[in-house]
Amino acid sequence: MQHRDLLSRLGLELPADGAGLSVRSPIDGAALGVAPVTPASEIPEVAARAQRAFEAWRSVPAPRRGELVRLLGEELRDAKEDLGRLVTLEMGKIFQEGLGEVQEMIDICDFAVGLSRQLYGLTIASERPGHAMRETWHPMGPCAVISAFNFPVAVWAWNAALALVCGDPVIWKPSEKTPLTALACQRIFERAVARFGDAPADLLQVVNGGRDVGEALVASPLVPIVSATGSTRMGREVALKVAERFARPILELGGNNAMIVAPSADLDMAVRAIVFSAVGTCGQRCTTLRRLIVHKDVRDTLLPRLKAAYASVPIGNPLESGVLVGPLNDKGAFDGMQRALEQAKADGGTVTGGGRALADQYPDAWYVQPAIVEMPGQTDIVRHETFAPILYVLTYETLEEAIALQNAVPQGLSSCIFTTDIREAESFLSAAGSDCGIANVNIGPSGAEIGGAFGGEKETGGGRESGSDAWKGYMRRQTATVNYSRALPLAQGIKFEIAG
Amino acid sequence: MQHRDLLSRLGLELPADGAGLSVRSPIDGAALGVAPVTPASEIPEVAARAQRAFEAWRSVPAPRRGELVRLLGEELRDAKEDLGRLVTLEMGKIFQEGLGEVQEMIDICDFAVGLSRQLYGLTIASERPGHAMRETWHPMGPCAVISAFNFPVAVWAWNAALALVCGDPVIWKPSEKTPLTALACQRIFERAVARFGDAPADLLQVVNGGRDVGEALVASPLVPIVSATGSTRMGREVALKVAERFARPILELGGNNAMIVAPSADLDMAVRAIVFSAVGTCGQRCTTLRRLIVHKDVRDTLLPRLKAAYASVPIGNPLESGVLVGPLNDKGAFDGMQRALEQAKADGGTVTGGGRALADQYPDAWYVQPAIVEMPGQTDIVRHETFAPILYVLTYETLEEAIALQNAVPQGLSSCIFTTDIREAESFLSAAGSDCGIANVNIGPSGAEIGGAFGGEKETGGGRESGSDAWKGYMRRQTATVNYSRALPLAQGIKFEIAG
Amino acid sequence: MQHRDLLSRLGLELPADGAGLSVRSPIDGAALGVAPVTPASEIPEVAARAQRAFEAWRSVPAPRRGELVRLLGEELRDAKEDLGRLVTLEMGKIFQEGLGEVQEMIDICDFAVGLSRQLYGLTIASERPGHAMRETWHPMGPCAVISAFNFPVAVWAWNAALALVCGDPVIWKPSEKTPLTALACQRIFERAVARFGDAPADLLQVVNGGRDVGEALVASPLVPIVSATGSTRMGREVALKVAERFARPILELGGNNAMIVAPSADLDMAVRAIVFSAVGTCGQRCTTLRRLIVHKDVRDTLLPRLKAAYASVPIGNPLESGVLVGPLNDKGAFDGMQRALEQAKADGGTVTGGGRALADQYPDAWYVQPAIVEMPGQTDIVRHETFAPILYVLTYETLEEAIALQNAVPQGLSSCIFTTDIREAESFLSAAGSDCGIANVNIGPSGAEIGGAFGGEKETGGGRESGSDAWKGYMRRQTATVNYSRALPLAQGIKFEIAG
Amino acid sequence: MQHRDLLSRLGLELPADGAGLSVRSPIDGAALGVAPVTPASEIPEVAARAQRAFEAWRSVPAPRRGELVRLLGEELRDAKEDLGRLVTLEMGKIFQEGLGEVQEMIDICDFAVGLSRQLYGLTIASERPGHAMRETWHPMGPCAVISAFNFPVAVWAWNAALALVCGDPVIWKPSEKTPLTALACQRIFERAVARFGDAPADLLQVVNGGRDVGEALVASPLVPIVSATGSTRMGREVALKVAERFARPILELGGNNAMIVAPSADLDMAVRAIVFSAVGTCGQRCTTLRRLIVHKDVRDTLLPRLKAAYASVPIGNPLESGVLVGPLNDKGAFDGMQRALEQAKADGGTVTGGGRALADQYPDAWYVQPAIVEMPGQTDIVRHETFAPILYVLTYETLEEAIALQNAVPQGLSSCIFTTDIREAESFLSAAGSDCGIANVNIGPSGAEIGGAFGGEKETGGGRESGSDAWKGYMRRQTATVNYSRALPLAQGIKFEIAG
């Protein structure tokens, strides 16, 4: 039981059965253990503990809070191999990507440590003599993090590293499908806390469980921030509950990410970028490339090369070196993929690939051939995000047309263009260009660096995480004016004098 | 009919009766005219026009967009007296405050003109060689502005000056009670447009009407930004509808603003600040001072002085010089005030003032004596925002207690402390201090400058308008990475190489 | 005497002769009048007056200071035609460029008005509990502006609009060759001051005179900022004097600006850009294009077109519509140009054009044919800035070679590339690309917008003016930490306890 | 030979005699070893090596450069005890302060790592359609760091951590008095480089030696940045040489730091703050408190308490626990102190303390009693920075007077006020308040956190190091405009059309 050792090294001693979340590896369907759940009825107490932690943590100087995150980064460096492997085991992405996910956690910790001496507000010129105006960012309160199975650890880290530095305790509700990686992160965090010394209790609470647990968390009046990653459907429910009580959402929902391949594109690079971003993580990234918008003059060159590359992509056990495509997460994902392909065919599409793979070897797992679907137009199914490796191919003649196609979907996460023409590239990045939160030139839509803000508008939910000033999402802004004179002038020069 | 001349100078020739919104002046109940309404059924076409304007306006360089706002500022300077008077006539605030409101419009125009050459995004250090990362802010789309009767023109200007500079057309739904000032603003805006020359049509559309018009606007899929000012009840409805379609709300809702008066306070200044912020605009500002939290050692000095000041405040026709308190907006406001005072008495409060005033002179208007209510504690009615000049007085012993009282209401807009002790002042402004979006020292809670961001968390809605980087609320953020190398390195150092 | 009327409209009634600076128009050598001079011995009193103005002005709220600059902008709008014409008359640039220079003054005023509510410092996370850290920008003191003949008014405005908003009075020493435009600006400024109402006296003092006046100003201990535009030789002298007393220089010195024309360039655009930037202002802009680095594959296409364009450029009286090239400023400029051409020939260069023009018509003025000089290599004369319309042409094979040529001069002001290839464009803009402060793609090196920071490193002097955060050059930075606790923790956790 | 072991652990195996810098410990005058020197004649080759390192390092992505600094921080954590002890041994400050200095190095490394993903420039709204404007910060070139004996390692780290992240190699010329700590830092840095893997050679070069070495470095045309810490005399020489060649100085020169003690001050805290900041490091910090400006009403309470505290301060071997004041650095410092005290007496001052201490125990070292000198006024000697523990005491009546005294010295580094009155505190921090780069409230002038910018105007030299945007001092700014349209509009709307 190799994975027992791994879990043990990560501090997880779980029962093989009993009540809780039974976890099976998408690699082979093997049982990994049973994770304890937090009943929804306990969420009020969880939130109350977070609130108590907040009342202490908010007054700890931010650079000292940063020290905790620095220690977390050190612990993650130490645990990188093990945690990366557990990500692969529990979620099914290839080990290289599991490592990449942990590296992203480490990167965001480093970034957050730096931030802990910044969290800059502004001093502002006041219009009144003897007055000083300034804007300060203060801790906001407990932050709920609801994460999805496909990035079981990195998304938490994006949120937690910033939230902790910003003074906010974290309550983490992981996907039901990936409770183990969450528990492992909790152990790692606890090691950092132990080295730190005097942190308040309950800075991080992991609550495993089902939909009811998430709902209780989202509804808690003690949780002013809810960061949720997942489907648009889930996101809309969260958004409504959060809006009801005027809390702050940070939503990272669906993407339906496209690449425009222009006539001048470097096709060698384009093919490599397409394959990585369309089939990597078996098409289960929110930034997976799902739509290819190819100029009519290069389509006939590009498509055969792409199909050849698809045919050669090694599919298999994601723990094995050399494999680039692991399994879909479960049968539901497989069924959804098949339904989408059927619909695409019904809409006039031509499907290459898309069938089940390795069924003999892994009867309880859901490997697939990534699919390329040549479509006659951008039909409904193309405008829908199917969380599987389906790449729809569309053709364009003018850049305006390509950009219009790119934008004509409900989602707004990521996008890219391959071109060597600066006019095309800058037009794509302009106000009249891509409407996505992420827009790349000569790189695929996936694989963002942590230094930029991550997220997008429309059904993607409008949230921003990770770099730039995404940290402001975890703080409250205070505009203060201090009158240090002995007079009481009014703004806008208003006169209002009582006889006194 | 003096107001006819005024309306005429402002370009408004309105029927005296007929279909539409019948406007009566709160000063004396006199009819001012009937404003035409836009049927809710026309909102889709209004939105479509705004969208067309957007498609042109977004590609006009921002400094050129700023020129339109500069011209708007010039036109407002020219119309200041008239527009300020119309504000008084239609809304009932004193003329000085009417002028102040127009000045605020002018100020935000000046500010927005400067912004039009900034709208700064970031260039960001990329982790990959041969890559350039940057973040740009782009126009977002049509912006709905739903404004309230109490600031009938300034709040529109806060939004419109920024939205226009940011590239967004504006659809303005004013309060049903103040359609005339909105129409006057539209005329003023049109003059600026005419001087500008080549602006697209429909950059500003005013839609007067009732609740159904607002609802249609909030629901429009072509309106990605909804900026709404008003009650928490209204705001929650907007928030839910906006959340449903993942649009962006900018909410400025209720306030329940307090002042802490510390033992070291300069009481002369405190009395003046209290009177201005508690009775100004007849208690109908969102930043009106509603709760006075006085240290037990100064209460007995402060209260008599305050009552004396209240007794001497000139109440009357707000167009008359010397008057400081005009009427409540309507009978509903008066009834609400009386109910609140009754409840306060029932809770053990002692009421000074609060009765109707000038009923003989203005039988169709609702003037009141501002009320001071000494409360035994912060009961429910104190925690509720009553839009009238009621000042609840509470007593405290320690600063911690005072801050806890200040924060223990559902609203989070504005707050202040009067103290000369820097430890108290900075504690009040610290992470453990006031939880409001605005926190002042030695000035009242009202009368913000436009250079700072305006708004607050909790039931205040979380939006920010006016200064600082509130302009970002009107734009979409794009994180772009440009690969100008011939290699395709992945972020986080991931290795993913296809054989091909 | 048409110019008499113009001067009179601008408020200038000058003697035709007598002591002072005798000004002659470079258009025809005609006398324009005699400007009074300020003896160097009076500079201490001038500086003392500025210091007194500073002590009042620094405490005027910045947005109020902005109002003065807004009024200045209005006055400049009113005087645009006249002032633009005077620029042409006194300096010799074409009227379109004279107008452009005034427009630039107006633009910077608008920008500075917006800045007057910003001047943002930072609030910063402190490492110590009960401590608040912040950084504020304060007025610095009187600012000397030493401007050059070629931009006789815009450069002053760049400095003055910012300095005034930042709280600094200005002492302006214009070029000896352009005292009249400076005096006209002073009159315009005085009109703004009169409308403003309560500004302290002496916010702007113009000191005309020779080198000794400038030297006295640069040496004044009451002048902490010296902004100087002109030659590298002059700049070095200023730099040394300013360094001696630890004052702050803002230097805008020589440029030797190049354009790289890549194989993929749009040659239609390139030709137009070259002509404007190489012959505009008769080659007397600091950003004039002086070096053309053409790829070997396009040279033979580009050069003939360029020579044809040069041949057709209308040279003549810059007040006349249609004329694009006016005179050199004086005989010294002409002689310098001829010497440079001689040296270029001696170095192996082939000169096209460069001779005197219109000598019959304007015997006392110095019109020239702009010169194209094809050089065998980048010899010393190419590396030297000659203030005249000489365009040296060099050839390259690889982009690395082109960038190396571009950077291998002592100056570092402006640069550009014409290419449609994004890899070339971004490489040119990268850390390994152009070493200039300004680097453009598909526009010439001249004609910067005021929204960006203007200036460059190396012999260009390192200063930055105009947009971005160039305003910080006019203020002093204060880092403040406020301890509002009752403890005294030391930074870096140092323990230092006296028995006490 | 205990220090041999220490040096050995730090990788230093030095000859006991021979050519080079002979280092003696100020603790007891014992020889510590001989440090090898770099002849001035080798500086050109040193600079050439740095330039080669620069050409490689500038193209390494900044976050990767940050990784080197992160490793440096880890190595410093490991070496903290040893390096802190060597600081004490070589420089003479107490061990707690030696540790604090190393902690500051660690802090700035953490901060710089975060910066390595920021180094933010701006994207800026362009006034021209189809144009994108942006500002990017690029590596500048080799950075010379000239450091002083009193902070032998921290000041280097402030500069080096930023310079390295910014892409600039460092050439470090330490004080002649502290070559060993510099060599130890180089060893530590080399360990980080070894772990990093692929850094170019010569990112850090330490050049020990005398004044000629520093002069050669300052004059090197390959060194565009010179960061120098030390006396005003030295700084002026550096400034002139750097100005001569238009390089960029970062000067941290003299301070003459004052504390104002107001009537409302918490005297317990004030006494502790005064003692730490006046006698700590034996008065040899650039931020040492040198002037005490006491309100007349508290002087008689404060001074006796202060004298009592001075009398009880433990003086002695700085390696011993409990000791708070170690030796002066050398006899020169002692003589300078005595001369200053003589002059102060001659000016009417009353001296308490100031004599030599522990002369019997340490005949070859220069321990002193810290001095309090009550002055009748701010005479020349008070306005002069004497690098020794002399505290001049002045008296004031009004805050304006106190601020005027505070500002009436040639230096402008640090300052503070002790008051609990917010009006006094904010006035002190206002535009009309302290003219120093650092201004504190209720903490002493020394012991800055690394998160703020450090430095000051006037004879302090104007440089800024450490936090905020001090990193910009190590980079060059590039303003780029990209035209991605097919038109060529000119800024300021200029019309310039050639027929061709």
Short description:
Four copies of one chain form a homotetramer. Chain A has 500 residues and is of the alpha/beta class.
Keywords:
aldehyde dehydrogenase (NAD(+)) (chains A, B, C, D), alpha/beta, 20% strand, plasmid (chains A, B, C, D), aldehyde dehydrogenase (NAD+) activity (chains A, B, C, D), homotetramer, ALDH7A1-like (chains A, B, C, D), 38% helix
Could you explain the architecture of this structure?
Four copies of one chain form a homotetramer. Chain A has 500 residues and is an alpha/beta fold. Chain A is 38% helix and 20% strand. The first copy, chain A, contains 14 helices and 23 strands. Chain A has helices at residues 2-9, 43-57, 62-91, 95-115, 154-165, 179-196, 211-219, 232-244, 267-279, 296-312, 331-346, 380-383, 399-407, 422-428; strands spanning 21-24, 31-35, 121-124, 131-139, 143-146, 170-173, 204-206, 225-229, 248-252, 257-261, 289-295, 350-352, 356-357, 367-368, 371-374, 390-396, 411-412, 414-418, 438-441, 453-454, 457-458, 465-466, 475-483. Chain A has a seven-stranded mixed sheet with strand order 12-15-16-11-10-18-19, with helices on both faces. In chain A, β18, α14 and β19 (438-441) form a beta-alpha-beta unit. In chain A, α1 (2-9) packs antiparallel against α3 (62-91), α4 runs parallel beside α5 and α9 (267-279) crosses α10 (296-312). The radius of gyration of chain A is 24 Å and the shape is globular. The model of chain A has no long low-confidence stretch (mean pLDDT 96). At the A-B interface, α4, β4, α8, β9 and α9 of A face α4, β4, α8, β9 and α9 of B.
